Amino acid sequence: MALLTARGRTRDRETTKDQGIKAVPEMGRGVRATWRYTVGTTAAWALFMSTIATLLMLDAGQDGTQVLDLVILLLASASAVALMRYCWFFRTGLGGGLPARHYSLGLLLPAGVLWFVGLAEAHTLWVAAVPLWLACNAVAVVVDRRARWAILGVGLAVLLAHGPLGLLLGQSIGGSSWEGGPVYALAVWALMTPALFVASIWWWDIVLRLDDSRRTSGELAVTKERLRFAADLHDIQGHHLQVIALKTELASRLLDVDPEAARVHITEAQQLARTALEDTRALVHGYRTVSLAAEAANAAEVLRAAGIECSVEVDAGALPPEERTLFGLVIREATTNVLRHSEATTVTLRLARAGHRPVLTVTNDGMRSDADTRPDGSGIDGLRRRFEAIGGSIEARSDDGLFQLTARTPGPSAPGDSTSFVVPADVGTLSNGTLKDASDLRGSRL
Q1: CA–centroid distance for 128 within its chain
Q2: Partner of 362 for a Cys bridge, out of 33, 162, 172, 405, CB 3.0 to 4.6 A?
């Protein structure tokens, strides 16, 4: 009974209310596709084995429909359905924990009853034990390693003991299923099942760990930027505050002895306070609004940290400072939207000229249908108003799975010389912070 509970290893894991197993974080599109392939092949193999065993049990009996055949068909069908449903719980990986008790009972009971019913006929010996063997393989996947070997050992013993027990009860081995070797083929496939189940879910476990590592890398990138900002702030404030404290303490001591010298120290402390305030403002300004090239480099770094292939080409020559700032804000907002609202695998940032007008396009291949933009000043609508105020525009459209954000400004009256900025694939550290929280990195992708 201990194996039919969700205790032990799953006690300290996050559980769902309806199943009692570990909850899997939200996954990216590629990881979900891998899961669909894994569970699809595993469930297909379980259905194939169950179907072959059922046909062999029904094909070699007496002519006509027998009551025993109906019982076998009902039990085999129930066992196959429960087995395919149980494959869904492989999503938590090897040793992910047993689901709620009724799922395990629903898997084992029909197969166990069929094991006993199979002892009543000669042509069902060993074949009727296959569903219970498959059920044991499914349970072995979700328990820990020690229990896995114990369950597989018990299941194999029960499978092998079915035939000799039938012979002791007076049955004899025979029937058309034993002619031509279909039972022997079924036996080989049945013995392959543990390797197939465990290997498939072992590979899925590796995919989950890689996805978790990618998510952790994104969180570390954000943490690294926060530490950089904190270090810069400490360097600015720590020195100035220490000197201000010394100046004011010295002024207080000299106030009665040398008022003129005290006044000089107070004036210097005031100047240091103003300098500290200006430096802090400059730091915050540099943290929130940076050059267009730095914003593009930062976007590439964050997207690649989230596992998204990013291509950046920015023609930033001859742009007025105001337009550079606006394009930088578009790149920042687009990057945040990709990480929060899309399932993109590739993102392209391109700033070029269409005639004399600079045009920025941000394209990704994974915009979700339920994604929305914020109507406030920090969202796309807010940026659209800022662009329209200078005669520019912002357009967003979705076509064939691609989402494209296009921003245009009036540009100079005549095109000038331009230089290009291309972000290399091995771009280094974050130039500034565009993300406010580690949860901005997709929650299920990093």
Answers
A1: 41
A2: 405
**332 close to 295: Cβ distance less than 8 angstroms:** yes
Say what the pLDDT of residue 215 is: 80
CA angle, 233 as apex, 230 and 235 as ends, to 5°? 110
Place of tokens 């659209």: 384
Identify whether the C-beta of residue 316 lies closer than 8 Å to the C-beta of residue 421.
yes
User: What Rg do the C-alpha atoms of the chain give, in angstroms?
Assistant: 34
H/E segment holding residue 172: none
Name the residue type at position 41.
T
Contact by Cβ (8 Å): 420, 350: no
**pLDDT per residue over 178-223, tens digit each?**
666 778 888 888 888 888 888 888 888 888 888 888 888 878 888 8
Identity at 357, one-letter amino acid code: R
For residues 270-294, b (16+ Cβ closer than 10 Å) or e, as one string?
A: eebbeebeebeeebeeebeebbbbb
**Model pLDDT for residues 293-327, shown as the tens digit of each residue:** 877 887 787 777 667 888 888 876 678 878 888 88
pLDDT single digits (tens) 97-124: 888 889 989 999 999 999 998 888 887 8
Which residue(s) pair with 348 in the sheet? 311, 363
Closest listed residue to residue 301, CA positions, set 230, 218, 376, 237:
218
How is 173-192 classified by DSSP, letter by letter?
A: --SGGGSSSHHHHHHHHHHH
What's the pTM value of the predicted model, to 2 decimals?
0.52
CB 429 within 8 A of CB 298: no
User: CA 146, CA 158: separation in Å to the nearest integer?
Assistant: 19
